[in-house]
Write a structure and sequence with these properties.
With 445 residues, the chain is of the alpha/beta class. It has three domains: 2-135; 187-348, Trna Endonuclease, Chain: A, domain 1 (3-Layer(aba) Sandwich), CATH 3.40.1350; 396-430, no CATH class. 73% of the residues lie in helices and 7% in strands. It has helices at 2-29, 33-53, 56-180, 182-199, 246-253, 257-281, 302-311, 314-321, 329-395, 404-413, 424-430, and strands spanning 208-210, 214-216, 221-223, 227-231, 235-241, 295-298, 324-327. The chain has a five-stranded mixed sheet, sandwiched between helices. A two-stranded antiparallel ribbon has the order 2-3. Strand 2 (214-216) and strand 3 form a beta hairpin. Helix 5 packs antiparallel against helix 6 and helix 6 crosses helix 7 (302-311). It is flat. The model is unreliable at 439-445 (pLDDT under 50).
Length: 445
C-alpha cells in the first residue's frame, strides 16, 4: 500500500513539473483568442463605418484595400497554421520531456522509496521475526510435549482396554461360576455383606462376628449364622445372606416370552425357598444370643428382589409372618446407620454416668483434702505455741544474767573462744531486762 502511495505522489509531482514547462514554452508564441476576436470586431465595425461615408472612388480604393486585407488575412492564417504545427511539435516535445522527467523522478524516488521501505519494514519485521521464532520454538516444544502426552495416553488407553477386556472376561467367568455353583453364590453374597459392614466402619470381633457356632437347644443342633451384629445392652442382630441369581439371569437373557414366564416362576420360588429355609433355622432361639423376634435376610442383588416383589407383592408379607425381614444393600446401609446412632447414644449415656461417678469421687477427695488442711492448721498452731514456749525459756529471768541468752553472753565476755554471734533480734529483746553489776577480775588486774 505504501509503495502505491509513493508511485502516485511521484506521478503528481511529475505532472505539475511538466505542466509548468509546457506553459512557459507556450507563452512565448501564443496569441490569446480574445485579442483575435476583438480585432475581427474592430475590422467589421470599421468596414461598416467606411461603407457609409466613402464615395465610389473611395469604394474602389476600398476594394483594393480589401484585397490587401484578404492577403494579410491569408498571411495571418498561414502564420496560425504554422503556429499550430509548432504548437503540436512543442506539445509532443513537452510530452516526451515530461515522460522522461517523470521516468527519471520515478527511478530516483523508487530507489529512495525501496531503501526507506526496507528500513521501515526492518523496524517492524525484525521484532516480528524474533517473536515468530520464539513462538515457533514454543509451538515445537508444546508439540513435543503433546506427542509425549498422547503417547503416554495411548499406552494408558491400551492398558485400560486390556484391563477392561480382562475384567469383562473375569466378569463372564464369575457369572458363569456363580450360575453353576450355588455354594459360590452364597460365598459371594457373604463377601458383599462383609464389604458393606467394613465400609460403614464396623470392626470384626468388636462390632460383629462372622459364622460363629451357637447351640439351638430346642432342635438340639449347632447353628452358624452368617453375621451377628452387637447392639447395646448385650443385644444382637442376626443377618443371613441369600443369593437368587441363576433364574434371574436366565430371565433377562432370554427373549422368548414363555421362557421368561418360566424363569420368573423359578426366581420367585427361589426367593420363597430362601425365606422358608431361614425361618426354619429359628436363629432367634439360639443360646447365648439376645436378639429381636426377627432375622434379617440380605439379598445382595437388589434388582432381583425388586423383580420378585413386582410380580409377587405378598413376598414381604409372607416373610414378616415368618419373622424374616428382607433387606438389600441400600436398606442395610440405612440400618447400619441407625445402629451407629444407637451406639452413639449408648456411649453418651455411659459417658454421663462416668462423669457423675468421677464428680462424686472428686467431691470425696476434696472433703478429705479439707479435713487434712484443718488438721494441719491445728498442728501448726500447736507447733507455734511450743515454739513460743521454747523461745520464752531462752529469755526467762528478772535480770539479763539470769536468762540462758544472758549467761551465754557472759561466757563470751569472759573471753570464751567463739566463731559466731547470737542473732541481734534476740539480743534486742534482752535489752529490756536489768543489767547485773559488773564484776572485777582481780586476776586480770
Amino acid at each position: 500500500m505504501e509503495t502505491i502511495l509513493f508511485l502516485v505522489t511521484g506521478l503528481v509531482i511529475g505532472s505539475v513539473v511538466g505542466y509548468i514547462v509546457f506553459k512557459l514554452l507556450l507563452q512565448k508564441n501564443y496569441v490569446p483568442k480574445t485579442e483575435t476576436d476583438e480585432l475581427w470586431e474592430l475590422i467589421t465595425q470599421l468596414k461598416v463605418e467606411n461603407a457609409s461615408t466613402i464615395s465610389k472612388e473611395e469604394l474602389a480604393q476600398h476594394y483594393i484595400s480589401k484585397e490587401l486585407a484578404t492577403q494579410k488575412e491569408d498571411h495571418l492564417e498561414e502564420k496560425l497554421t504554422t503556429f499550430k504545427t509548432e504548437l503540436e511539435v512543442l506539445h509532443t516535445l513537452s510530452k516526451e520531456q515530461f515522460k522522461n522527467l517523470a521516468t527519471d523522478i520515478m527511478k530516483e524516488k523508487k530507489e529512495e522509496f525501496v531503501l526507506e521501505n526496507k528500513r521501515e519494514l526492518s523496524f517492524v519485521i525484525d521484532p516480528f521475526k524474533n517473536d515468530l521464532k520464539e513462538f515457533k520454538e514454543k509451538v515445537e516444544a508444546t508439540r513435543k510435549e503433546d506427542i509425549q502426552d498422547i503417547t503416554s495416553l495411548k499406552k494408558e488407553l491400551e492398558f485400560l482396554q486390556k484391563l477392561n477386556t480382562q475384567l469383562s472376561e473375569d466378569a463372564k467367568g464369575l457369572t458363569s461360576a456363580l450360575r453353576s455353583d450355588v455354594k459360590m453364590q452364597g460365598n459371594w453374597g457373604e463377601d458383599r455383606l462383609n464389604m458393606i459392614l467394613e465400609a460403614e466402619g464396623l470392626q470384626k470381633y468388636i462390632d460383629y462376628t462372622r459364622e460363629e457356632m451357637y447351640r439351638d437347644n430346642e432342635m438340639e443342633l449347632n447353628r452358624k449364622p452368617d453375621f451377628i451384629l452387637h447392639l447395646p445392652n448385650n443385644k444382637h442382630l442376626i443377618i443371613d445372606s441369600k443369593v437368587s441369581l441363576t433364574a434371574y439371569v436366565n430371565y433377562f437373557n432370554t427373549s422368548d416370552p414363555e421362557e421368561k414366564k418360566e424363569y420368573l416362576k423359578l426366581h420367585m420360588r427361589s426367593v420363597n425357598d430362601h425365606i422358608e429355609k431361614l425361618a426354619d433355622k429359628n436363629y432367634q432361639s439360639l443360646a447365648g444370643l439376645s436378639t429381636p423376634d426377627f432375622v434379617f435376610l440380605f439379598m445382595p442383588i437388589e434388582p432381583a428382589l425388586t423383580l420378585a416383589m413386582n410380580h409377587g407383592p405378598d413376598i414381604i408379607t409372607n416373610a414378616l409372618k415368618r419373622k424374616i425381614v428382607l433387606i438389600t444393600p441400600t436398606t442395610l446401609i440405612a440400618t447400619l446407620k441407625v445402629i451407629r446412632i444407637i451406639w452413639q447414644k449408648e456411649n453418651q449415656v455411659k459417658n454421663v454416668e462416668l462423669i457423675f461417678k468421677q464428680c462424686g469421687q472428686l467431691y470425696d477427695k476434696f472433703v478429705g483434702f479439707a479435713e487434712d488442711m484443718i488438721k494441719i492448721r491445728s498442728k501448726l498452731k500447736e507447733s507455734s505455741d511450743t515454739f513460743e514456749d521454747a523461745m520464752g525459756k531462752l529469755k526467762e529471768g528478772r535480770k539479763r544474767g539470769d536468762t540462758i541468752i544472758g549467761r551465754l553472753e557472759n561466757i563470751k565476755n569472759l573471753e570464751a573462744t567463739t566463731n559466731k554471734t547470737i542473732p541481734i533480734a534476740l539480743l534486742t529483746e534482752m535489752e529490756l531486762l536489768e543489767e547485773e553489776p559488773e564484776t572485777t577480775n582481780h586476776y586480770a588486774e
